[in-house]
Design brief:
The chain is α/β, with parallel strands linked by helices and 237 residues long. Helices cover 31% and strands 17% of the residues. It binds D-xylitol-5-phosphate and zinc ion.
Length: 237
């Protein structure tokens, strides 16, 4: 498995969601976003049960793994979660996150992810309370806040995510000041060039962007200009 840290320190990590990629050319698409400066590949797994859509599983993760060096960030929108965790670890996932409502035993699921050699995280829907963090801070490498209701790309950013992000940033900083481990703060849904600065200012350090990246292919066939615009906006934040 590749190292979790991106090659160079950045203002923020950008994680293109391949949900909006051309699935008929997935290898080429992930190579193109890596070449354009992506820090992670965000991999949305939906089961038509926990969320009303059906996407991709470990076989596709394994298929894209040799095409990129950057970490693969697997976002599980499936219920239950435990059965599928080892399969994604074997398929080359580096980060695995899941929704607490989808696991009967959140502590066990988090431990399973780390035991499988991956970074572990919890995902919060817009209406999911942050109390799920209370007893598991030591088991988290990443916290992911949904800024849309999960299931589809191309939805509008829900504004109440910003105060929630500030609250999670406060909790992470307090945890770190007590000697706790590093925890990334990722946001997912409706992130665009024109709102990424506000999302960064609220405390996020890792930004999922699906339609904003894959909907902005350059005339030369790459994605460099959209990453340039994201980096400029982040530099201003
Ligand atoms: C939604 C997914 C997101 C989505 C983001 O359930 O988890 O990762 O693909 O897409 P955009 O950036 O288009 O909102
Ligand atoms: Zn996602």
């Amino acid at each position: 498995m590749t190292a979790l840290q991106p090659a160079q320190p950045r203002v923020g990590r950008i994680a293109p969601s391949i949900l909006s990629a051309d699935f008929a050319r997935l290898g080429e698409e992930v190579r193109a976003v890596e070449a354009a400066g992506a820090d992670l590949i965000h991999f949305d797994v939906m089961d038509n049960h926990y969320v009303p859509n059906l996407t991709i599983g470990p076989l596709v993760c394994e298929a894209i793994r040799p095409h990129v060096k950057i970490p693969i960030d697997v976002h599980l929108m499936v219920k239950p979660v435990d059965r599928i965790i080892p399969d994604f670890a074997k398929a080359g996932a580096n980060i695995i996150t899941f929704h607490p409502e989808a696991s009967e035993h959140v502590d066990r699921s988090l431990a399973m992810i780390r035991e499988a050699g991956c970074k572990a995280g919890l995902v919060f829907n817009p209406a999911t309370p942050l109390s799920h963090l209370d007893h598991v801070m030591d088991k988290l490498d990443i916290i992911l806040l949904m800024s849309v209701n999960p299931g589809f790309g191309g939805q509008k950013f829900i504004a109440s995510t910003l105060p929630k992000l500030r609250e999670v940033r406060r909790r992470i900083d307090a945890w770190r000041s007590q000697g706790g481990q590093e925890i990334w703060l990722e946001v997912d849904g409706g992130v665009k060039v024109d709102n990424i600065a506000d999302v960064a200012a609220a405390g996020a350090d890792t930004f999922v962007a699906g339609s904003a990246v894959f909907g902005a292919r350059d005339p030369d066939g790459g994605y460099r200009s959209v990453f340039g615009r994201f980096r400029e906006a982040l530099a201003r934040a």
